[in-house]
Design a protein that fits this description.
By secondary structure, this protein is an alpha+beta fold. It has three helices and six strands.
């Protein structure tokens, strides 16, 4: 099992959500986050200078079976990519165990409905 954390532009969240659902990734968490990026200069919009050093983004957190890692990563890349600086990052982290509280099932079967696997 792997945990995928993706930090993406807020404007791309709906596209990424749809891409993940099409890739059969039906369960994930997301959070509003702020971060510091490489861009340090202010941006001018209608005569007002805005500080762009603190960036608002969405953090998506997904735990998937090993067989689903690459399709989840590719779905995120294709949906979130603009080609501009600030598209974000994806991190893939190993997960030791998962436990479904209701049934005490352990391992990757705890991530999905066991009846669908049979």
């Amino acid at each position: 099992m792997k945990k995928i954390e993706a930090i993406i532009r807020k404007t791309k969240f709906e596209d990424v959500k749809e891409a993940l659902l099409k890739a059969d990734i039906e369960w994930f968490s997301y959070y509003d986050v702020r971060g510091i990026g490489k861009a340090r200069q202010g941006r001018i919009y209608r005569g007002v200078v805005y500080d762009t050093s603190s960036i608002e983004r969405i953090l998506i957190s997904i735990v998937v079976r090993d067989k689903n890692v690459e399709k989840a990563v590719q779905a995120i890349i294709k949906a979130a990519q603009t080609g501009e600086i600030g598209d974000g990052r994806i991190f893939v982290i190993p997960i030791e165990d998962a436990i479904r509280i209701r049934t005490a099932e352990r391992g990757d079967i705890a991530l999905y409905n066991a009846e669908q696997e049979r």
